[in-house]
Amino acid sequence: MKVIIPLFALLLLTLSIPVTASTLAGVVLQDSSLHAEPFSDAQQLGSLAARSTITVLQRQGGWYQVRDGQQREGWLHMSRVRLGGAASGSSVDLQGLSQAQRLLQSGRSGSSGTTVATGIRGLDAEDLGKASPNHQAVRQLAAYQADARAARQFAELAQLHQQSVAYLREKK
Amino acid sequence: MRKPSLFILLLLPALLLNLGQLQAQSWDKKLRNLDLKQTLRTAKQAFGEVDEKQEIRIGEEASAVLLGAAPLHPSEPLQGYVNQVGRWVALQSERPDLPWKFAVIDTSSINAFAAPGGHVFVTSGLLRQLQSEAELAGVLGHEVAHVLKKHHLDAVQKSAKLDLAGMLVSSQVNERRQQTLQRLNAGFRELYARGLDRDDEFEADRIGVILATRAGYDPYGLPAALQTLGALSATDSDLSLLFKTHPAPAQRLSALERYYPQLDAHARQPVLAERYHQQTRMLR
Fold it and tell me: Is B67 on the interface with A (CB under 8 A)?
């Protein structure tokens, strides 16, 4: 047991590091600096051109740790990146560029994006349109409910501390 | 301050009517019958305001539509986990005492839904895409915001031209009640297939980020989830309803980006990737 627990902890730790299970490609939205650390006043390691593709290694707050085509690693703010596009790590190839452009123009990645593995049925507009109300399932919901006390204990377990933050006022 | 005074003004005719009737009968018999609560409710209903009990009842009908289209996920621990995260997030709102109910619906589609009165649904397909509890908190915060702002209640009332407040009154005879419920169901079927106004979605994003931050999570959970969704193939059938009913993830990210400087003070708050992966392991 003494060996298993640290091993398990190590496994959990590894899970927490990458952004997703598989490393994701991203596109740089505008000319940006690559930072040594996830802070805007951190040392600048170089620059990344708009539309270049990068590989995202992990996220910390609003920053992604990325690797560019020249194998340079550093931090880039999330607002400078859109995930998606061709698999990268190399410099922009033709496919990557067209992917990047599509992403920038439509806000959506093309058909070569990650495909979602499915085993069960989907739920589309048609399914909803012909849905026959299931009241029995609605009654079932109460069985899963968490009361305020349980929710507070659950938050405490993970050391989530309540913060006082005002709602964002809409900026046009 | 404008609202209460207007409300009293609207209430006056109802009160005067009661006072008028008072003269015809003995004072003390009538005083017993003058139920102020009932009078208030009647006045509200005449002007289309739905009380909380009715809101919950309407939300149950909306939920019945969603659950008629996809089943609940069978894992009780998973349902319990999502309820604890959701309730903790909802506790940070101005309606902490609603009987909040969260549920995972078992479908490969990537989506989440809200129904009036504190009902929130997230698909197992979406849970598979998320990477941390902070992301889940952001997504649930977005749905909680739809409930807080009564987006679905207002939309279904508008589009189906339903007098929701006047409906579902217990005094209604059964037949009329049945008709009412059918119209309500049809209204929600249509609304969930069509989606809310885009501005409602942007508003829910702004509120969702703050609720998750107040709950102590990393504020970038919702933006990170939107980044992941944006990277998925737009042609994937599991995304068709989400993309049909919401602005594109890139647009939602652009709308949120202007607020990032306000979030950075909280950027070091926990992400809880380990707990998330542990609690959702049955989906992988």
Answer: yes
